Amino acid sequence: MNGLAPIARRKLSDQVFDRLKHLIEIGELKPGDEVPSERTLMGLLRVGRPAVREAMQALASMGLIEISHGERAKVLRLTANSLIKQVDIAAKIMLASSPGSLEELKAARLLFERGVVREAAIKATPSDIERLEAALLAQRASLGDPEAFINADMSFHTQIAKITRNSIFRAVSEGMLSWLKEFHIEMLHRSGREHITLSEHEHILNAIKSGEPGLAETALVRHLERSRDLYVSKA
Q1: Are 139 and 156 in contact (CB under 8 A)?
Q2: Which of 54, 78, 154, 160 is paired with 41 by a 20 to 30 Å CA distance?
Q3: Which segments constitute the HTH gntR-type domain (predicted)?
Q4: Are 208 and 216 in contact (CB under 8 A)?
Q5: Are 150 and 181 within 8 A, CB to CB?
């Protein structure tokens, strides 16, 4: 009978994990609070030290708590940025071992940034434009230094995402740029296309400054389509 399948026995550490995660979810353990000590949890839950430690490590790997040597674990404040960082290492490994994944990321970035730049053109204030202009000046000043140039390039695109006032847009933008960075520097250094990049960024900036979403999107698409071949998988 399908309704009488065997009852699965769950690991004690999974049960401890569920209990602690529930306390975080309902706010009984808030960001900044210390998690009860191992000894306290062992006594309250009537489990051994290995179950508690395994559960704590699982919570830490999810970014829910921070474990520091010699100190009590603390509940972390979750942000869009911290959530994206949880997949940072796995994303970089996947991209390094799968050329197809890199192509998919390029396509995802293009679709994502098209919407972001339109939003930026609608919402940009004079202060936003000043920060974007400063980012472009910093990139221009870094000509001849590939590492600094790429960092300034990332800063320019991140600044566009910041203009949207959406923390998730900003976190996703920073994540994508970080994952792509390792496939970019050597190719850019050999390409001699830095001045083209600067010119394209200036067109994007001017379109945002003029408050024209359509022009901003067109300039952004032209820039990303042209620069797609600068990102090459090493796999």
Answers
A1: yes
A2: 78
A3: 10-78
A4: yes
A5: yes
Q: Which two tokens stand for residue 187?
A: 């190719």
Hey, what are 79's tokens? 């942000």
Distance of CA 222 to the CA centre of its chain: 24
47-to-16, 52, 154 alpha-carbon distances in Å: 8, 7, 48
Q: 71-94: b or e for each residue (b if 16 or more CB lie within 10 Å)? A: eebbbbeeebeeebbeeeeebeee
pLDDT in tens, 65-85: 989 887 899 998 888 888 887
Residues 6 or more apart whose CB falls under 8 angstroms from that of 84 comprise 171, 172, 174, 175
What pLDDT score was predicted for residue 181?
A: 81
Phi/psi at 51 (5° precision):
-65, -40
Q: Which domains does the chain have, with CATH numbers?
A: 12-75 (1.10.10.10), 81-229 (1.20.120.530)
Q: Tens digit of pLDDT for each residue in 131-155?
A: 999 999 999 999 888 888 888 999 9
Q: If 0-12 CB within 10 Å is exposed, 13-18 middle and 19+ buried, where does residue 158 land? A: middle
Q: Please indicate, yes or no, whether the overall pTM of this predicted structure exceeds 0.70.
A: yes
Q: Which residue has the tokens 């051994």?
A: 48
Alpha carbon of residue 186 to chain centroid: 23
pLDDT at 186 over 80: no
- Write the CA distances from 169 to 92, 132, 197, 204, integer angstroms: 20, 16, 22, 18
The type of residue at 174 is E
